[in-house]
Design a protein that fits this description.
Blueprint (H helix, E strand, L loop, with lengths): L5 H7 L1 H8 L2 E5 L3 H12 L4 E5 L24 H12 L4 E5 L18 E4 L4 H14 L3 E4 L11 E5 L7 H12 L6 E5 L27 H4 L10 H18 L4
Parallel strand pairs: 1-2, 1-4, 2-3, 4-5, 5-7
Antiparallel strand pairs: 6-7
């Protein structure tokens, strides 16, 4: 029977599509990378999505984030992304978590409920906590390394963390994973050396932010990287593709 997933079913088959409709995927970080991953998962037939992020859509997000428009500026990213997913697939069950994932609040998430986890957050300690929590639950996880300060979308690769090179974030993660006895970790990384962003305070958001004064601000939490419209989305699409392909294998197990 004809459906919105008919063209996908021509490649994957009905058994896989039925399996994907029963899968639940958590995406941590709904920014440039995570937003595209969420949309590809929704269009790929994933039946349940958990969206985790505490940020609001900022004017500076419009250059690269799928759910960022002038109409959504000021809204929480998880809410804007949820509404977009439901316009694509009203049958998708979307759970939003308006929070910034940290090791201190990890107990809010039961990873045994997820079939797959995508990590698109920026902090090393948060990433390491996600990896430890996912691996303890036996849940597959795929982590994005640095997508900011890049201009070459063709330089991204999927590999084990111990097979990565060039990427500064991957270097730190390799070291920390080794210390923690994490033997394997699937990541998406770039072989392009990062570009140093121009220091232009007037176009940053440290002094001109839409976030409430008591809310965590991205400009306070981390350095502000440069980014473009055609790089983060590629990383998000790669991550969603890897998740769907990995989950598809479970249809026949």
């Amino acid at each position: 029977m004809l459906s919105q997933f008919s063209r996908t079913q021509l490649l994957l088959g009905p058994e896989v599509m039925d399996h994907l409709s029963r899968c639940r995927v958590a995406v941590f970080g709904i920014g440039g990378v995570g937003g595209f991953a969420v949309e590809a998962l929704a269009r790929g037939g994933i039946g349940a999505l958990d969206l985790i992020d505490s940020d609001r859509v900022c004017l500076t997000n419009l250059n690269r984030q799928l759910h960022a428009t002038h109409a959504t500026v000021g809204r929480f990213k998880v809410e804007a992304a949820r509404d977009r997913v439901l316009e694509i697939n009203p049958q998708c069950h979307v759970t939003v978590h308006q929070t910034f994932y940290l090791p201190e609040n990890r107990d809010q998430f039961d990873f045994t409920q997820y079939d797959y986890v995508l990590d698109a957050i920026d902090t090393v300690k948060g990433k390491l906590s996600l990896v430890e929590q996912a691996q303890a639950a036996g849940t597959p996880i795929l982590c994005a390394m640095g997508a900011g300060n890049k201009l070459d979308p063709t330089a991204f690769r999927t590999a084990d963390i111990y097979e990565t090179s060039v990427c500064p974030l991957a270097r730190v993660m390799r070291s920390e994973c080794r210390k923690r006895g994490i033997r394997h970790l699937k990541v998406v990384y770039s072989t392009e050396p990062p570009i140093r962003p121009l220091g232009e305070p007037a176009i940053g958001c440290r002094s001109d932010s839409i976030c409430p004064p008591d809310a965590p601000q991205c400009a306070v939490r981390r350095d502000i990287p440069g980014s473009v419209s055609f790089v983060p989305g590629v990383v998000g699409l790669i991550m969603a593709g890897e998740a769907i392909k990995d989950l598809a294998k479970g249809a026949f197990q």
